[in-house]
Amino acid sequence: MEQTKNGMSSVEASTNPETEMLVLEQLKIMKKGALEILQEDELALKIRRSVTEHQPLIIKLGLDPSAPDIHLGHTVVLRKVRQMQEFGHRAVIIIGDFTGKIGDPTGRSKTRKQLSEEQVRENAATYMEQIFKVLDREKTKVCFNSEWLAKLNFESVIRLAASTTVARLLEREDFSNRYRRQEPIGLHEFFYPLMQAYDSVQIHADIELGGTDQTFNILMGRTLQKSAGQEAQIAIFMPLLEGLDGVEKMSKSLGNYIGVDEAPEVMFKKAMEVPDNLILRYFELVTDLHPDEIETLAKRLSDGENPRSIKLLLAENITALYHGAENATKAKEYFLSVFSAGELPKNMPHVVCTNGEQTLLDIVPHLISDKMIASGSEFRRLIKQGGVSMNGVRVESADTPLATPEAVLKIGKKNFICFDTDRLS
Amino acid sequence: MEQTKNGMSSVEASTNPETEMLVLEQLKIMKKGALEILQEDELALKIRRSVTEHQPLIIKLGLDPSAPDIHLGHTVVLRKVRQMQEFGHRAVIIIGDFTGKIGDPTGRSKTRKQLSEEQVRENAATYMEQIFKVLDREKTKVCFNSEWLAKLNFESVIRLAASTTVARLLEREDFSNRYRRQEPIGLHEFFYPLMQAYDSVQIHADIELGGTDQTFNILMGRTLQKSAGQEAQIAIFMPLLEGLDGVEKMSKSLGNYIGVDEAPEVMFKKAMEVPDNLILRYFELVTDLHPDEIETLAKRLSDGENPRSIKLLLAENITALYHGAENATKAKEYFLSVFSAGELPKNMPHVVCTNGEQTLLDIVPHLISDKMIASGSEFRRLIKQGGVSMNGVRVESADTPLATPEAVLKIGKKNFICFDTDRLS
Hints:
Two copies of one chain form a homodimer.
Chain A: H1 2-7, H2 17-31, E1 36-38, H3 40-53, E2 58-63, H4 72-86, E3 90-95, H5 97-102, H6 117-131, E4 140-144, H7 146-149, H8 154-161, H9 166-170, H10 173-180, H11 191-203, E5 207-211, H12 215-227, E6 234-238, H13 264-271, H14 279-286, H15 291-302, H16 307-338, E7 350-352, H17 364-369, H18 376-384, E8 388-390, E9 393-394, E10 406-411, E11 415-420
Parallel strand pairs in A: 2-3, 2-5, 3-4, 5-6, 7-11
Antiparallel strand pairs in A: 1-6, 8-9, 8-10, 10-11
């Protein structure tokens, strides 16, 4: 700490009020939604120096290329990086390909299976395409850490290892738990945090972003940078985003996610499913809305405004980020036309359609199994009587094609069922 | 174990009695004086295969080139290697220069200070000159482990680390003690045992010799060899030799040692100071006497023979190893002539002379401080009266030069003092 402060002693609080305003503004945006910042005072100094010397900060974000599909949960850190890029800072994305290439030499861990150079590059390319839906491509550098890690010789590895102690590594929660439970910890596993920390040294990171599960590794980066005579990076820890169920963390396997690749109408509709108590949190974590505006929205909510109107703003905001303002407006209009007046029940059954199911006739088996109708002939009779509507429009024939990306059917007076037709060709 | 046994399954107990005799003989010699052998059954198999296939075994001995002066304590393992060489086996001496070159990157350990390439080679050269007083130069290969260790890249180091676990390393006594006392263990320190173990893989060691302080590291060699698909080496642990005081381990700093470079008379005389209860142990550990002959000596002792006569054999045997039989006989004769009939007291004061002290006159201050005489004039008077003798011979004048390498003075009826004049020019 002393060292860092000394290294920065020339950058004192400016007497220029314009500079100070800019520093405070950056700090406010960086803090938005963050769980913890280590250390905030050092961050302020770094920002001030960056502003004064017109020198962008280097923002490090380590990514694991094994998770190919990005949803809003992944965008929490990405959006934060993007917001920093708007201030001129530079992002360095580290693809941890070195560990991927090595795999787990013991073969015990399935998540560390060995990948070929080609596989790693391929995964990374798919991944980057999605990441640039959030990040500014011009202000982003992508690095593969095998570039420097593969070159280290034994002597350098020993020096790296000498920067830390066995006791400190055993403090990391997963290690200490396993050690206590007498489950084996391979010595090589102690190097994974060190590799990640060494990346910070290599790129001279000013700030590293990560989830709280990365606390140990990111702080190790500070240690290694100090041993290497560098200024220590600032750690900004972002929380994990709850999924649409409001309980579990957003994840593809739990189905409680909004994918960044989803169609505008689907994205909008899913965003409308965010629980009321998470509306403000979603604004903080997955939109770029300014903290001051979020505060205004918070006041409107606490003043008793219907959360649905604020949620419509949220859904439009999120959709606009990935599909543009125009498509977002259309998605909103579509949503309002289809799901008007809050008529829809909350727990309507959802069915994902397959490619073979193109018309209403094709989905009769689903309607029967969900006990909406007893038979195909009953369905036809209901249609004739005007008792079936799709997305709020009366259906005239059982041959009507299914609406995409979503078809909400009302059968009779109170039965609703939703068909996800997003993937129909 | 299974793996090893499988690997050896073709080498079954031979039906050739000559071969079996040779195997048993080698086993007997290898076991002489050893504290522990892991595993003895595997050792027998290795020897049998070596005899049958006329293939020498590879004996590994790791040496630390930071200790330059060799005494009998160091020769315990060296003699064992030499005895194996007599059966045709090959020694590979590993100079651990890699750790010497790295030093302790934290700078905390004084024993691990960084040495230049040149210093390491120079130390090693001095050291090897002495080692070849015991080993057979023709059947010895000297390796510097930086040859292979310096070349390892990060990936190889990770694979090396993956062969063991944190828990296993923390079982090593010094590590577990420090961890319990919350003293820092640098992560790099965990690599020192692995480096040593990797040496075994590199040279395909069949047998590694060491002290019990090396148990952990030598067994780690077995582990690494098995991971590398090799047959595991046999560990032969030799005990530490007690010094002439019979209590502490032999060491230069305690002064209880016999150096391999010492003059024949000094070596002989010092060997005569070995406590009676250690005579057989010295025969076992620092001579090449056959176990059967040692057994005969043991019987003579237990039958009540004066230990002094057995000790004379020991002293002659040791002296012959380093100065040849002829010089050993001369040293014995000298010893008997000077220190006849057990006249000398056991706890005679010893003084190491400096170069300025050439005659009896020069040592008067020592005699006064040891309260042998009150003044120089008393000393002259005693000489005149025939009351002073040196090495059993009456002294005629105070100008008499001091005898080398040792001058035992008898002053008056019962005062003895010994001057070590070995280093006088």
